[in-house]
Amino acid sequence: MSNIKADELKKLESEMAEDKSLPLRESNLVFGEGNSDSEIVFIGEAPGFHEDRLKRPFVGRGGQLLNQLISEIGWRREDVYITNIVKRRPPDNRDPLPEEIDAYKPYLKRQLEIMKPKVVVPLGRFSMNYFLPDAKMTRDNGRVFRLGETLIVPLFHPAAALRSTGVLNELRGAFKKLPNIIAGKNLVDVPESRPAPETSKKPPQAKLF
Question: Please, which pLDDT band fits residue 177 given cuts at 50, 70 and 90?
Answer without folding.
Answer: very high
